[in-house]
Amino acid sequence: MDLQQRKLTKSEWESVEIPISTEEKKVLQMIIDGYDQVNIRVNYHLSLFGFLKIEYNEVIEDYLYNKYFNKKIEAIFGNIKIDPIIKSLIEKVNPTSNHAIKKADSIRLQKNTEESLEKVDIYESVLIRHFEKIIKYVSQLKKKHQEFEFHYFTLYKLIKNNISHLNRHVQTVANIILNFYKEKVNFDTILINSPELVEKNINLLKYADLTLYEHQKEIFTIFQRKSTTNLVLYIAPTGTGKTLTPIALSQTHRIIFVCAARHVGVSLAKSAISMNKKIAFAFGCGSAEDIRLHYFAAINYTKDWRTGGIRKVDNSNGEKVEIIICDIKSYLPAMYYMCSFNDKSNIITYWDEPTITMDYEKHEIHEIIQKNWKENLIPNMVLSSATLPKLHELTDVIADFKGKFPDTQVTNIVSHDCKKSIPIINNNGYVVLPHLMSENYDEVMQIAINCEKYLTLLRYFDLFEVVEFIKYVAIDNKYVPTRSLLSYNFETLDDFTMKNIKLYYLKLLKNVIGGTWGAIAVNFKINRKQKITANQYIDSKGNKNFKKMSSVGPGIIIQENSLSGKPISRVVSETSKDIISSSLIKEDNNCAVYVTTKDAYTLTDGPTIFLADDVEKISKFCIQQANIPVLVMDEIMKKIEFNNSLNEKIADLESNLEYLTDASSVTAKDGYKLKKENRDEDKTGDKNKITLLKNQIMSLKIMTRSVSLNDTFVPNSILHLKKWAEELNITNAFTSHIDESIVNEIMLLHGVEDTWKVLLMMGIGVFTNDKVGVKINGAYTEIMKKLADNQKLYMIIASSDYIYGTNYQFCHGYLSKDLCLTQEKIIQAMGRIGRSNVQQNYTVRFRDNDQIKKLFSDDSDKPEVRNMNRLLSSNVV
Q: Which alpha helices (DSSP H) does 528-673 contain, by range?
């Protein structure tokens, strides 16, 4: 995370002008519209009416049902044996309307033949496919019960979506089928299969309505009230739209968005500009004169007479500004700037992640924070963070704010939206859940109580393991009281959500019947399986351990090794066939750590972030473990060293070029160009030298040697997988996609570590801040940001400073052993993973199990709480 309180770079300015995707715009428009209608439900999937784009009326609706849908439904009757009762009920649905449709509508319908309709995802056809499957599997109920439950549950959910002009007759048929087969639905089966029905059901994810999160509904409602003084403690999980909320709040209020992590502010600016919001920037400001307006917000400006575009903006007039985005240093100048154009009561200070730096007892930003709080004039304050201390923990902060603004209404928004699972994996590859953490029930009970205090942890409960516990305790063995059984807690299919199932898990955990925990603990200890299985087929050097294993008798396995002549070894056999015995799995605390070689295949679906304090150590480890042959590495390093020498010469020439360009003239305040003193060369001579320098720079750049790496050393490329994971069943292994031009661009950068250049060829980028005596090349960081934003990198190795500051989409994350984190900061680190809108395979992998214990423990002495109460005070500290 970049905490430098400095002005935006040219690259950051340019990045905010890049439009967001159409899908992102749809979500943002829904959020903006939802400000006035918090129960908004928007769905962009098309009914047949929506596809045909004709005016709705019931006559045409009847016609369309008879022409396009009724024959499909009749075909189901012809192909599948169906109960006569339901068949007769459905046949009664057939509309008998004989009204003629308009000629214009008839012509439009003729243009859309059945063949073209088959190529379009018409929502009615989706429903028909599912109730066809229901009827089909009912006839094979003994064999296909799980499929029946899947399609019944899916249809039950889909029929409730907000689809414009969905054919009422198709809806009626769907509801007849749901009601008729309702008694065949088994809630135990629904629960047991909920990982597939709820979590991984692509039908529900694909066709879901766009709606506001509950925390967005609450904060919108607060600022719709007439109260002009509010302190809002806004706690919601990462990746649930907290930082987009100010865009909607700007409908009725002016917003000062304060962020210590500048990347978050730049990201918000990009979204706001895409939605035509009028914004201003205050980064690294010493006074209001340093504030800069975006063109949309400009009132006074001069135009370029040739292009007609804006040439120079008068930044002093901010009447139109709806959102000003600032860093912590610039808050007071931004506040006074906004107050000069707006009533203070109509301004909201929206402070994003106020806990940043609060885990340090001393930090250079603390003094600025204290000054900002003391001199704050804005009566509406939102403190927004996934790990914000609770209301009862910030008593001093609240008392101080109310002392300054006596009529303050304090609101505590605590949201636990849980729409995805991001399993916690320990250093031996096992899923971590409360019931697996101890054989002592008192300890498990305390962990469960702590989880109820921090329900944001629900998203890190693996749903499959949660269901296994519920099945064993409440379905198979009844180890809980009757009131805790499934039938008493789930009344309808609407209750089967990921959040409800995980809350039910915690309820069961706290209500286990006395004397039964021993049996429960032993069962899960014996039957516990690794989520990430160690790759035992090959060692870290690339030598094959096992080519094939086949059982020839109790306890004996024949091994076909790449090195022949080895004797038969005896292990505990499970009469395995082409598998590795579970007894061979070693708990060496290093499961899946070889991210550039034999464990790379476990990193699926999207990029990975590896958080560590010592990024250099991790970088060198990745290169070392890649097993690049010495000759190849020597050749690469020779080319890199040659390029480095060129880069030094280029840097000197560019410095001279910059000097000559600037020295040729100096622009005075009155606009006249003055000759620079102590220079004898005339303008013609300067131009000649400038041309010569440009030619020399170009010649040196042409001399740059191209550097490349064989795909065998690029994680999860086809050749890499063939070498390291040929025997394994690989699905969705994620690899990098980096153009050769990007590699060449990095090679031309001066001051970039040689190891980082090698890592880039492997698809790995590095994020870290300047170190003592070492300045990180800003161009390198900007290139890495773009690659990360476009998901081109296989992995990013980032220092702990980036725990708060990355909004990129990661599917997996590692927390290194060397990280020293508070409980709150661990949750923030975990929040970097799974920020996308879809459910993929996610994991948070801890290299130190003690960090997991800290995560689930009751930490009553939090530095974040102490420091917030100390710093957010009007008294001088």
A: 615-625, 630-663
